[in-house]
Amino acid sequence: MTRRGERGRSAEVDSSAPALRLDGLRKVFGERIAVTGLDLTIEPGSFFGLVGPNGAGKTTALSMAVGLLRPDAGTSHVFGADVWQQAGRARELLGVLPDGLAMPEHLTGRELLTYLGRLRRLDRTTAALRTDELLDVMDLMDAQRTPIVDYSTGMRKKIGLATALLHAPKLLVLDEPFEAVDPVSAAGLKHILRRFVAGGGSVLLSSHVMALVEELCDTVAVMAGGDVVAAGPLHLVKGHGTLEDAFVELVGGTRAEGEVLPWLVS
Ligand SMILES: Nc1ncnc2c1ncn2[C@@H]1O[C@H](COP(=O)(O)OP(=O)(O)OP(=O)(O)O)[C@@H](O)[C@H]1O
């Protein structure tokens, strides 16, 4: 049971359940099968990286996993809570950074965090404290009174991440969290995520940056054509080479070699 004053602080967790369990998730857009019937389990305490080429189905899968997109088939459970049947409970446990997050553009960064904190039932003092801390670690203090419509792409990503962290979730699902984030902010963000996992949290992130996934994640899954083609501990998936080598081999890509676009070379 969660007492009223503690809501938004930490929901109780079914410690025997996976942090995230996807069973048979499937989504079809018209003729295009975006996700074919995805099974994936994220263990508690893991730092999980989801990689795959453009159009592999990562965003579609993550959107269904967190309850933002209704699947045609399959289920998603967050610490045992079904994201559709027990949406309220799942939401307390989840922090989400979706792709292309829609923002209330005319709120300032500070207003957004304050209002979301209150919506998530943090008391006034806690909401204010966390807003200050998040603006500080995201290096957004100077922009705290700037409307979000005037934020850069990287600043939008960082305020989005701050909203994902605000209610102290147990599982973070982050779609391309480092995209457009400058190196200084990225270092701060990596530190936050590592501390989150060290403290018992779980992270699932997608990224196109293989070096970053290798640096942060202990477990990875490679998606291609709407399904997982390899998953497991990082060292097993990448083998003796780099994750990039394994990725290219797994998804059947060809690096541009030899004579390509000859008209570019005069
Ligand atoms: N709303 C939609 N309507 C129609 N097709 C869609 C929609 N969303 C995704 N798709 C299609 O589903 C497939 C998977 O797209 P998705 O965005 O999930 O891939 P992704 O792995 O996240 O790609 P990227 O790495 O480029 O972001 C693509 O072929 C895409 O065109």
From TrEMBL:
Presence of keyword Signal: no
Top-rank taxon: Bacteria
UniProtKB keywords: ATP-binding, Nucleotide-binding, Transport
Example of a GO MF term: ATP hydrolysis activity
Record-annotated membrane-spanning stretches: none
SMART domains found in the cross-reference section: AAA
Record-annotated ABC transporter domain positions: 20-250
InterPro entries associated with the record: AAA+_ATPase, ABC_transporter-like_ATP-bd, P-loop_NTPase
Similarity remark: Belongs to the ABC transporter superfamily.
UniProt-recorded name of the protein: ABC transporter ATP-binding protein
